[in-house]
Write a structure and sequence with these properties.
Blueprint (H helix, E strand, L loop, with lengths): L3 E4 L2 E4 L4 E7 L8 E7 L6 E7 L4 E3 L7 E6 L4 E6 L8 E10 L4 E5 L3 E6 L1
Parallel strand pairs: 2-11
Antiparallel strand pairs: 1-3, 3-8, 4-5, 4-9, 5-6, 7-8, 9-10, 9-11
């Protein structure tokens, strides 16, 4: 059972930056994919960024060139570096860990961290 704890959220002005962290209770080297999702007010949870155990990354178009996802398996920590933040980035951000199995994948979620961007 993987437990994930996010931190780093807060209130920031538009154009500012924040770095979110996601710490895993288990060896992150055993986790295949790390993803960051967000859920804004009245919206569905949506994928923001993802990174595989090989370091391959992908981003939602809305955050491309502004956000960077990284993982440091030695520290059991994943990061989401968020730059040039916009009010529409306001949301609860969730860390998600995927462990690929033979038949099914196991999904684990953190509790979320609030990011609020003021205009």
């Amino acid at each position: 059972q993987v437990q994930l704890v996010e931190s780093g959220g807060g209130l920031v002005q538009a154009g500012g930056s924040l770095t979110l962290s996601c710490v895993s209770s288990e060896d992150m080297a055993d986790i295949d994919d790390i993803k960051w999702y967000r859920q804004g007010p009245g919206e569905q949870r949506a994928l923001v960024a993802a990174i595989t155990d090989q370091g391959t990354t992908k981003y939602a178009q809305s955050v491309q060139d502004r956000f960077i996802i990284r993982r440091d398996d030695a520290k059991n920590t994943a990061y989401l570096y968020m730059n040039d933040l916009k009010p529409e980035d306001t949301a609860v951000y969730y860390c998600n860990a995927v462990v690929v199995g033979l038949n099914t994948d196991d999904d684990y979620w953190g509790q979320g961290t609030q990011v609020t961007v003021s205009s």
